[in-house]
């Protein structure tokens, strides 16, 4: 009986020992192999069979088994090695995702990675670094990738700075805008505000309706341009124009809607303004008031009628500056060239619309088109009182210097523009633009002859040439002698009504320039001959 009890106790002890060892082995398997260990083993085996037979493939196999060993020992670096093994495997197979074996590797990698992540969290749960650990998620990966791409796009699309002559033109836009705003402030402080105060007087020489007519829509234009000037000053305080946002503050595009609204009302009422001003000047009190305000230190001696036309002159001058700005950026192959060109085209459309609504005649429209087309065209020439009568291509028949520009005989690329009070000459020149050096024809400003300086205009019947006697600076009786290419009847008809027009049967011009010879250099300086130098040496 005792032996039987002893054997039963041995059997129970063996059974309990076996169960304990089984549970220990099961626990060990669950902790080190289990579902996570199976996924890691499958990943390692798939990598072994699917990797290439190259040296790089054997490195990937070694890394996979090393990762498995670290994962089995629950080392924290197992996660990093697992990621590295997956990336190197993809590089080894050249990212051929279409193969079934590769898809199985990716699935086993993801399952093993999720388990490794959990194990790492359990390991760090008791650590003081737990608060600094963020669980991995694919959403987090996508967020990081998006952030990296945004940073890369900022680097690739690094904002370009405006430099060189283009920056000088932008600064000229600012300078002219500042001058224009100062003129508008003179209207307000020297004329509009004092005249509004006079309305409260019992013996006022003007009515409220007169004041409204003269200064209609003026306050809105002043506020608009003060805002534009403020934007420009904000950029220039930094000392550079960098990026599309900074550039946009010099292009007026942001204010196109306000420009159309305010300037339409102003330009349509401009004739009424000038007429009302003329009627008020018949009053002795009003004339005395204007005279006293002209002498005001703030007014700088500028009369009211000359200031009221400034808004009409401003937009054409802005158009010219935008044209020069675009041309210069185009030469620099700047990516902002198209942006400035768009602003230029928008401003051009605005001017055409304003002119159409105001009913400006064809001659003024032609002058505006000429000003926008010709490079280096003087801004002061564009005026509401000046119109373009006729244009014609001419050939210079005698050497002449006009407005510091020398025109040689036979020059045929000259265009003659007859204005109401002056003559403007332009020439066509071919330029190379851009990196591809494409050829474009550009019209350049040459010079002008004012009507007041012309003493005589004549035509010659024998050769149909035309001559103009004019004075320039200290040089009286200068002769501009030329022939007209193509139809000349329309130009001749306009010249007949111009100034002291005469007709000659024959005419032989005498050139005011002495022919060059060996005794003259290109600067017109007399060279001493050898004999003359010898004579001086002998005398010395």
From TrEMBL:
Question: How is this protein annotated for GO cellular component?
Answer: cytoplasm
Annotated DH domain residues: 165-357
Has keyword Transmembrane helix? yes
What InterPro entries does the database record attribute to this sequence? DBL_dom_sf, DH_dom, FYVE_RhoGEF_PH
Give the record's keywords alphabetically: Membrane, Transmembrane, Transmembrane helix
SUPFAM superfamilies per the UniProt record, alphabetical: DBL homology domain (DH-domain) (SSF48065)
Q: What is this protein called?
A: DH domain-containing protein
């Amino acid at each position: 009986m005792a032996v039987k009890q002893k054997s039963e106790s041995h059997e129970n002890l063996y059974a309990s020992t076996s169960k304990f060892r089984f549970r220990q082995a099961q626990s060990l398997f669950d902790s080190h192999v289990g579902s996570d260990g199976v996924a890691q083993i499958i990943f390692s085996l798939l990598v072994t069979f699917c990797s290439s037979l190259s040296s790089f493939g054997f490195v990937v196999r070694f890394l996979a088994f090393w990762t498995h060993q670290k994962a089995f020992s629950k080392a924290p670096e197992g996660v990093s090695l697992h990621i590295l093994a997956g990336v190197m495997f993809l590089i080894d197979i050249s990212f051929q995702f279409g193969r079934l074996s590769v898809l199985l590797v990716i699935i086993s990698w993801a399952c093993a990675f999720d388990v490794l992540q959990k194990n790492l969290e359990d390991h760090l749960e008791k650590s003081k670094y737990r608060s600094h650990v963020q669980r991995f998620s694919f959403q987090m990966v996508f967020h990081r990738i998006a952030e990296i791409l945004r940073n890369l796009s900022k680097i690739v699309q690094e904002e370009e700075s405006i430099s060189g002559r283009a920056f000088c033109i932008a600064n000229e836009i600012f300078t002219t805008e500042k001058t224009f705003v100062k003129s508008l402030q003179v209207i307000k402080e020297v004329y509009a505000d004092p005249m509004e105060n006079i309305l409260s007087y019992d013996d006022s020489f003007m009515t409220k309706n007169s004041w409204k007519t003269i200064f209609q829509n003026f306050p809105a234009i002043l506020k608009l341009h003060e805002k534009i000037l403020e934007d420009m000053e904000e950029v220039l305080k930094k000392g550079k124009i960098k990026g599309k946002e900074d550039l946009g503050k010099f292009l007026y595009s942001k204010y196109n809607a306000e420009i159309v609204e305010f300037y339409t009302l102003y330009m349509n009422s401009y004739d009424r303004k000038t007429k009302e001003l003329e009627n008020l000047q018949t009053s002795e009190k009003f004339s005395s008031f204007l005279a006293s305000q002209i002498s005001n230190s703030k007014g700088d001696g500028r009369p009211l009628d000359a200031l009221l036309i400034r808004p009409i002159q401003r937009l054409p001058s802005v158009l010219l500056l935008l044209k020069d700005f675009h041309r210069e950026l185009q030469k620099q192959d700047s990516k902002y060239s198209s942006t400035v060109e768009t602003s230029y085209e928008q401003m051009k459309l605005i001017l055409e619309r304003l002119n159409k609504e105001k009913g400006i005649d064809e001659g003024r429209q032609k002058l505006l088109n000429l000003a926008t087309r010709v490079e280096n065209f003087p801004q002061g020439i564009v005026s509401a009182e000046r119109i373009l009568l006729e244009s014609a291509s001419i050939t210079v028949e005698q050497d002449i210097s006009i407005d510091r520009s020398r025109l040689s005989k036979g020059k045929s690329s000259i265009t003659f523009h007859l204005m109401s009070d002056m003559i403007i000459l332009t020439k066509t020149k071919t330029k190379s633009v851009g990196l591809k050096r494409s050829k474009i024809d550009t019209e350049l400003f040459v010079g002008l002859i004012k009507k007041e300086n012309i003493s005589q205009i004549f035509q010659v019947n024998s050769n149909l040439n035309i001559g103009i006697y004019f004075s320039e600076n200290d040089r009286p009786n200068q002769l501009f002698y030329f022939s007209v290419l193509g139809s000349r009847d329309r130009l001749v008809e306009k010249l007949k009504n111009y100034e002291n027009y005469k007709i000659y049967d024959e005419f032989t011009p005498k050139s005011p320039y002495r022919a060059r010879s060996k005794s003259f250099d290109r600067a017109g300086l007399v060279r001493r001959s050898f004999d003359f130098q010898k004579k001086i040496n002998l005398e010395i």
